[in-house]
Structure formats: structure tokens, C-alpha cells
Amino acid sequence: MSVHDFWTPFALEPFINALLIGLSIASIWLVAALGLTIIYGTMGVINMAHGEFIMLGAYSAWVMQYFIGIPWLLTLPLSFVIVAFFGWLVERGLIRHLYDRPLDTLLATWGVSLVLIQSIRLIFGGEPQYIDAPSWLKTVMVIDFIHIPWMRIFIFFLAIALVAVTFAILFKTNWGIQIRAVMQNKEMAASFGINSKKIYGLTFAYGAGLAGISGAMFTGLKTIFPDMGLGYVVEAFLVVVTGGGDLLGSVATAGIMGEMFSVFSYFTNDTFGRFVLFILIVIFLRFRPQGIFSPSMARR
Amino acid sequence: MQRANLYHDKRAQWGVYFVFFGVLAIIPLLMDDPFTMNQYARYGVFGMLALSVSLVWGFGGILSLGQGIAFGMAAYGMGATMQMQYQDPVNDPIPSFMLTNELEALPTVWEPFWDTHLGLILAFGIPVLFFVVFGLLMFQARLAGAFVAIMTLAMLGAWYNMAYDMQPFTAGFNGISPPSAFEAFGVEVDPYSNMIYWVSLGVLAFLTISIKALLQTKFGTIVQAIRDDPERARYLGYNVAYYQTVLFALGGLVAAFAGVVWVMISQYVSPTSLDIFFSITMVIWAAVGGRMSLFGAIFGAMFIKAAESYVGDEFQATWFVILGVVFIVVVRFLPKGFAGLFEYAVGFVPYWRRNG
């Protein structure tokens, strides 16, 4: 970067493209943050290993495709299952014992993330891996001046689908009612016969599974390497915290953040855009620590 | 007379501090190897960073994952100061990395660094000022716990990106490597000498003893009361946000000392000083050593870094797996770290204290 071309003047067509890219970025951040939202919203656990769950999802997709030859689209649900199971194990073995010490969960899960990154590096090496996506996803959609890769469109709609499924689970199933009951008042829910330990375990597994499927999805756009999770986790946290740990809040925040980032980046550049966005979020949280929506939720 | 734990005896604690720093101080006399001294001086810096985490987190209850902000800012301030000591105002006024980035004149933000004293003041002042503003922003909103952790982490990420991206001002990824050693008050601090070790150790000892003394004042008591129950401290009439901000800024100052000394030792500053991974590692040092104990945190940092260099680059991945597992075990079973274990063990030493 040179100082002279720091500021890009406004022009309509590239700006519209930037807005569309913003939507795509928003959908990626939303998918990355979705599992985290469920976990944070339900149990107040800050799962620092979330980025590594995403990485695990990406690696499971790659392993399944590279060694077994499973088509990419099929690896998505399988990654969900694998990482969900792994998340369930982590909850059982570690997080379950730390519910009354929220800060320590943050640290312990960071330890988990360190172990995961380095284990994957030991097993598969540090070099980047690539996935072979179906050919129709590798083309770019062109309408006049608008250029969007089909992969981004695919991820956008998959994100919407995942949010819809999560909503349906939370609001239409028995399990969802139990989750929401535990979320609002754990003791009260327990006295109504809800096994909160089981709910926590399942919810954590579901959140981890969402990370897994998002990781498998991201392999369509990005390369796979052991510490790829770090690239998503900070943004995902900001989406969750700014959204107040609420599902709708996360959707709205991801949308706003993605668009703002894309617009800032359009006028300046990626890194400066991110800097401005982070500063704005910090200032926003100063005045609304409870997040954009959810005025009545307990502050954690 | 009453049975008590020797671990909590203030005089014994001071004794251990003096013995510890005394023993460390005579190491150069026994070895006289400039390269090893440079290496050991770095451990002093890691000790300072763990100290700052211990102060802010262990005694103030503020889990900051952004101590690297102060470290990095101070390191860049010091890097700029040392770079400008090398530059000549008449013949060679612009650092070479700026020339390769097509800058025709020295940027205004770099001008103050011509003056070594002003440069040093900025290297300490900017991070502390930033921590005061940032702290006020967070603590007046009564943010605590994980929120502070995430916000400091985000802020660190933002600064990392800036240092990386503002290439004409920070040399970006390559970083600034001042060609000559730091010189102030007519003394040149050779990074490969016994002196650098004593400088590093001296700063560490000074900071540790000052913090130890500070924590025994009323301020220290209030800060620890806030850690244990901020709400109760607030009801007792203490201005919690004020105390937390002061403590946070002090932690920033300690990390800034670390940054300044680090650049004196390594003659190099790059965005890695603002790396997220590095800042969380500081928290690991303090947690494993024992965040409630200044000595434990320092020892944790030195021990882990020494073990890391002993293991070597070849087995680095394996080492980090082990470190991660140790960290998980410590968090799960030993919240007070190894200092807590030590406290337990010392409890068996027969020791009585007069009542009152």
C-alpha cells in the first residue's frame, strides 16, 4: 500500500459489487458464529476452541474427499456429525466441570484449541490443503457489471437454511423448548424435570456440529491449514457478543458487520476496514453491553 | 501462638524475592557468555509480561487478553527511537524502509522520535494513555469477565492489522530493525553483554518489588476486594471503575516496560509483538505458574520459555500439545497454578504466628 492510493473514490458499479460481497461476508461470519451463538446463548460459555472446531470440520471434509473420495456436497453433513460428536466429548470431559467458572472455560477451551491445532499439524503437516468442489460451483455468475462466484451464492443460501433449521429446532421442537427453558432459568427448568446436563451436552454438540459444517463449507472458498480457525473466531465472537448471544441478534449483527466491513474496505482497504469495524464494535459495546436486541436477557 | 502457613508470611515472601533476584543477578559473573546473556535477558521480558497479567488478572480479576497491545505499542515506540538514533538529521534523515515505500519525507508521527527522551516518554506514555481510555470505556460500562477478554482480544487484533498494514510507517510484516544498539544518558546498552541482562533483570526486579509493595497498600486491598466481589465493593462506596482503570493502566505500564526492554535486547520489532497467540500465551504462563502469586507468574513464564527452548524447534508442535494439555489440567484442577500447589506443600512446614 502506498499513501497516495489509500482512499478509493465512490463509483456506483463497484460499490454495488462491494455491497453484494458484504452480504457474502456476512453469511460467512454468520455461519461461523451460529454454533457459538447457541453455545454462548444457552450456557454462557465462551468457547475459544470454536475456530478449531471449524478447522476440524474443514479437515474432516478434506480427509473424506482425499482419502475416501466422498463428493464434497456429501462431506458437509458428515462433517457436522463428526465434529458434533467431538464437541460432545469435549463437553463431557472438560466443560461440564467448569460451568460455575465461566472465565476458566474460556481458558480451558483455549487450551483445547492449542492442542487441536498442533495435533492436526503433527498428523497432516502444516502445508495448506485444497478441496475439489463440484465444477458448477467453481464458475462465476456474471450479470452485466455484477460478478459473484457461485460458491458464495451457495454459501449464502446454505447459511439461511442453517439459521432456519436452528430456529425450527429452538422454537418448534421439544428439545428447543427445553433449551430455552434452561437458558432462562436453569434451576427452575431442573425442577420441572428437565435434565439440564443432558441439554447442555446436546446443545454443545449441536453448536460444535454447526462449526463443523461451516468449516466444511469454507473449504470451498479458502485453503485448509491447521490454524485457519483463528481467521474466523474473532469475528465470530464479535458477532455473538454484539448480537447479545441471541439468534436474531447474531443474524442482524452479522449482516450489519459484513456490510460495514465491505463498505469500509471498499473506500480504504481490508485491514483498515477491519480496524475501523473493531473500534466501532468496542465503542458500541461500551453503550450497549447487552447487545443490539435482547433487552431482558441476563447480562453475562 | 497460632498455627499458620509460612507461605503467607510477608517477611518470608520478601526474603524469597530477594534471594531469587540476588541469585539471578550473579549468573553473568559465573558464565560470561554474551549470547546466553542475551537469551536470558529475554526471559526477563517474559517475566515482566507474566507479571503484568498476574497484576491485572490475578489481583484485579480483569482477564485481559490484550496485554500485547501495550507491549507492542511500547516496542514500536522504542523501535522508532532507536531507529532515529541511527539516522542522521542532515545526510540520512529517512529510515530506508520508508524510502522503499516511496515516502519522500519523514512522517509527522515519526518526528518526535528524533529526541531520545521524548521517544522514551512516548513509548511509555502512549500505551498507558491508551489503556486509561480503553479501560474507562470498558469499566465505566461495568463490563467484566468474558466481555473484557473478548474486547481486549478484538482491540489487539485491530492493532495487529494496523501494524501489519501501515507499511510506510511500521515497515509492515518485515518490522523495524534498528541497526545500532540503544544509547541513552551517554551509555550504550550492548544487546550482547552482561549489561543487557542486568538491565532486564533490574527492570523486572524493580517492577516486581514495586507491585508487591503496591499490593500491600490500601489500594492493593481495595483492588483485591473488587476482584472478589465488585458489587459489594461498589456498595461500600468505592469507585470500582476508577480502581479497575488504574490497575489496568498499571498493567499496561508493566507490559510497556517489557516492550521497551524487548527491543533493546532484540533490536527488532514486528507485528508479531501484537500477535493474538502471543498475548494468550502470556496468560498461560501466569495461569500455570500461579496468577495469584507474582513470583509464581514470573517463574511460570521463565520455566515454560526455558523448557520450550530446551525442546527446540524440531519438536515444537509436540511441545505445544504438551503445553496445551498442561494448561487444561491446570485450569481444571489447579486454578491457583503451581504456586497453589506450593502453598499447599508449605502448609506442612511447622510454623506459628503470634496472635494479632
Total beta-strand segments of chain A: 2
Strand order of the largest sheet of chain B: 1-4
Quick one: overall form of chain A?
globular
Helix content of chain A: over 70%
Written description of the protein model:
The complex is a heterodimer of chains A (300) and B (356). Chain A is an all-alpha fold. Chain A has one domain (11-280). Helix content of chain A is 70%, strand content 3%. Chain A has helices spanning 12-43, 50-68, 72-93, 102-124, 150-172, 174-184, 186-191, 196-218, 230-242, 247-267, 270-287; strands spanning 140-143, 146-149. Chain A has a two-stranded antiparallel sheet with strand order 1-2. Chain B has a single domain (2-353), classed as ABC transporter involved in vitamin B12 uptake, BtuC. Chain B has helices spanning 10-25, 27-31, 34-59, 67-86, 96-100, 116-139, 146-165, 167-170, 194-215, 218-228, 230-235, 240-266, 276-289, 294-311, 316-333, 337-346; strands spanning 2-3, 182-184, 187-189, 352-353. Chain B has a two-stranded antiparallel ribbon with strand order 1-4. Chain B has a two-stranded antiparallel sheet with strand order 2-3. In chain B, helix 1 (10-25) packs antiparallel against helix 9 (194-215) and helix 3 packs across helix 14 (294-311). The radius of gyration of chain B is 21 Å and the shape is globular. At the A-B interface, helix 4, helix 9 and helix 11 of A face helix 6, helix 7, helix 13 and helix 15 of B.
